[in-house]
Amino acid sequence: MINLLDFDPAGLTEYFASLGEKPFRAKQVLRWMHQFGVAEFSDMTDVAKSLRARLAEEAVVAAPEVIRDSLSDDGTRKWLLSVGEGNAVETVFIPEARRGTLCVSTQAGCALDCAFCSTGKQGFNRNLSVAEIIGQLWWANRALGAVRGGENDGERVISNVVLMGMGEPLANYDHTLRALRLMLDDNAYGLSRRRVTVSTSGIVPAMDRLREDCPVALAVSLHAPNDVLRDELVPINKKYPLSELMAACRRYLVKAPRDFITFEYVMLDGVNDRDRDARELLALVADVPCKFNLIPFNPFPGAPFGRSKPDRIRRFAEILQAAGLVVTTRKTRGEDVDAACGQLAGQVQDKSKRRLLSGSIPLVEVRP
Ligand code: SAH
Ligand code: SF4
User: Fold this and answer.
1) Nearest ligand to the CA atom of 199
2) Pocket around ligand 1: residues whose beta carbon is below 6 Å from it?
3) Which is the closest atom of ligand 1 to the Cα of 163?
4) What angle do CA 172, 177, 183 make, to 5 degrees?
5) Helix axis angle, 242-252 to 204-213, nearest 10°
C-alpha cells in the first residue's frame, strides 16, 4: 500500500501523473488530506469516482497511531504516537496568547547523545518517514479541531511549527525536507517560512543544503561558548567545531527568512552559566546576527546536571542584553506531563544498544 502522507506536493503530482491524472487532481487530494484532515477517499467528494476507487485499491492516508493523549494544567497537550516495533515518539502543542506552536519529532531516538538530553540518552532507532513527521501535524490539526469545517476552523490554532521534538531533523534530511515542503504548501498547511523553525545541534553540511533547498527559520543549539565545553555537552561539535558552525550560520543568513539565527542555550547550574561564559559567548557570536533563547535545564531521571537558579539566568541574560542582544528565557511548559524540552522520552528500542527507557507518565488522560 502507498501512504499518500509520504508524498510532498511534487511527489504526489508525479504519482498522479503515473496514474494518468492531471496535476490539479493532486492539489485536490492534498487539500482533502491536509486541510480537511480527511483519510477516506470516499469522502473526497469532488474527486472523480473512478479515481477514488483506484486510490482505495492501492493507497491509504495513514498517520501514526496515537497511544496516549495528555493535557497539562497549563494547556500544553502531548500525544504519544506509535511508530511501530515498540517505538513511540512525542508531539507537543503549546498554546499561547497569540499563537499556537506544535513541536514535532523527526527521529525515534537520536544518535547524537548530547549529555543533557533525555532523547539522546535513549539511543537511536531510526528515522521517521515523511508520513510519520507530517502525520504529527495532520493529527494535531484534527485533534484540535483546526481542520476546515472543524470546531476551530478559521482560527490559526497551529500558527507555528518547530522541529524541536525528538531527534535531529538534519540527520533525517530528506524526509524532513519533504515534510517542510508540505508545511509551506498553500494546498497543505500554508505556513510561512518564518513560522516554521528547524532546530539543529549543528550539522554544518546539512545547514548549507537546507539554505539552498528550503530556508526556513533556523535555531542552533549552542549550549557552550567554547569547543572544550561544547565537545563534552554536544559531541557532534568534535566533527563540526564552533568556528565552522558560526561560519555556517553566517552563510545561512544570506537566504534565511528571518535576519537572525536563534541560538538555544540550555542553562546548566555551574557548568555553562557563569558571567564569564556569557562574555565568552558574546565574543563567539559577534559576527552573527542572532537572538538567544535561554532554556532552563529540564531534569530527567539520572541526569548529571542541575538547573541554573532563576537569579543566575537573569544575570546571564542581562550580560547578553547589555551588549545589545535580544534574549528570551523559555518558560517551561507542560512539565507536569513531561512535555518540556529534553523530557520527551517516547519509547525507543535502541538499535545502538544504549538502553531502553519507556514513555513518561501523564497526569491527565484525554480521550478524543
Ligand atoms: N536535535 C535538535 C532538536 C531537538 S532538541 C537540537 O538538538 O537542536 C530541542 C532543544 O531542546 C535543543 O536546543 C536541545 O538542546 C534542548 N534540550 C535537550 N534536552 C534538554 C533538557 N534536558 N533541558 C532543556 N533543554 C533541552
Ligand atoms: Fe539529539 Fe538534539 Fe537531544 Fe542532542 S539535544 S541528543 S541533537 S535531540
Assistant:
1) 1
2) 116-118, 164, 168, 199-201, 221, 264, 266, 295, 297-298, 341-342
3) 3
4) 125
5) 0
Sheet holding 326-329, edge to edge: 65-71, 77-82, 88-95, 100-103, 160-163, 196-200, 217-221, 261-267, 290-296, 326-329
Q: For the chain, how many structural domains are there in total?
A: 2
- Which pLDDT does position 366 carry in this prediction? 40
Does the structure show a pLDDT above 70 at 357?
no
Q: Are residues 260 and 301 in the same domain?
A: yes
> 95 and 156 in one domain?
yes
Q: Are residues 78 and 34 in the same domain?
A: no
3-state SS class at 292: strand
The tens digit of pLDDT for each residue in 194-224 reads 999 999 999 999 999 999 999 999 999 999 9
Judgement on whether residues 97 and 184 belong to the same structural domain of the protein: yes
State the catalytic residue, choosing from 90, 132, 168, 264.
90
Q: Do 8 and 96 belong together in one domain?
A: no
Neighbours of 154 (CB within 10 A): 9
In the reported structure, the alpha carbon of residue 341 is separated from the centroid of ligand 1 by a whole-number distance in angstroms of 6
Chosen domain end from 30, 60, 90:
60
pTM attached to this predicted model: 0.93
Question: Containing H/E element for 92?
Answer: strand 88-95
Domain membership of residue 364 (yes or no) is: no
Q: Which atom of ligand 1 is nearest to the CA of 296?
A: 24
Whether 356 has a pLDDT exceeding 50, the answer reads: no
**Residue 21 is a catalytic residue:** no
Residue 355, class by beta-carbon neighbours within 10 Å (0-12 exposed, 13-18 middle, 19+ buried)?
exposed
- For the chain, what percent of residues have pLDDT higher than 90? 80
C-alpha 7 – ligand 1 centre gap (Å): 28
292-308 pLDDT, tens digit per residue, is 999 999 988 889 999 99
Give residue-wise pLDDT tens across range 31-89: 999 999 999 999 999 999 999 999 999 999 999 999 999 998 888 999 999 998 889 99
For residues 78 and 27, membership in a common domain is answered with: no
Distance CA 229, CA 240 (A): 14
